[in-house]
Amino acid sequence: MGKKDLNNDTLVERLIKGDAFAYSLLVDIYYDKLCHYASNLARDNFSSEDIVQNVIIRLWQRRHMLDPHISIKNYLYKSVYNEFVDYYRKHTAVTALEKKYIEGLDTVYEAPEKNDTQHLKTIIEREIENLPRKCKETFLLSKRDGLTYNEIAEYQNISVNTVENHMVKAFAILRDQLKDKVRNFLFLMFGRPRNI
C-alpha cells in the first residue's frame, strides 16, 4: 500500500486493525499540516508540536474506537482544535478566548460579576440551541469545533457559499433575538461572520 493507493476508508480500516504502516503513512501525510494548523492556533511551535503529537498518539491508542466511516482529515483537525483548547486551559489561567472577551467587556459595558457572565453565556447557548438545525450545526462546527468553512463544506457535503449563508443567517437570528448587552457579549465570544 502506497499513498497513491490510499483512500480515506482504506486508511481508517487499516488503522482500526492496528496496521503500523498505515499509521506511519497517516503521520507522513498529516503531521506537518496539523502542526501548521496548531501553530496558527497556539502561536507557539513547541506547543503546537506537543498538541499534534498528543492527538496522533491518542488516535493510535484508541484506534479500535474509530468509526470506520469517518473522514480522518476532519477527525484529526477537530481533535487538534480540542487538544489546543484543553492544553491552554491547563497551561494558562485564562484561555485566549476568555481573555479576548474579558478585555473587551470594559468597552461595551461595566464588567459583570461572575454570575452575570455565566447568565449571559446561558442565554446565548439557549438561543444557539433554538437556531434552525442546519444553521446550528454549521455555527457549532465553526465556532465550537474550530473547523474552517472549507472543512465544514466537505463534512456536510455542501458548498462553501452555503456554509457562509448558514453562518450569516445564524448570526442574523442571534443578533435579532438577543438584547444589546447580550449581543455584544456574543460577538466578543465568537466574532462576526465575514459577510456581516
- Global geometry: globular
The CATH architecture assignment of the largest domain turns out to be Orthogonal Bundle
Oligomeric composition of the shown chains: single chain
The arrangement of helices and strands along the chain is HHHHHHHHHH
Regarding CATH, which class of the largest domain?
Mainly Alpha
**Would you report the number of β strands?**
0
Strand portion? under 5%
Given as residue ranges, the uncertain stretches (5+ residues, pLDDT < 50) are: 100-115, 192-196
Name of the CATH superfamily of the largest domain? RNA polymerase sigma factor, region 2, helix turn helix motif
What does this 3D model show about the protein?
It is built from 10 helices and no strands. By secondary structure, the protein is mainly alpha-helical. It has 2 domains: 89 residues, Rna Polymerase Sigma Factor, Chain: A (Orthogonal Bundle); 89 residues, Arc Repressor Mutant, subunit A (Orthogonal Bundle). The chain is globular and about 55 Å long.
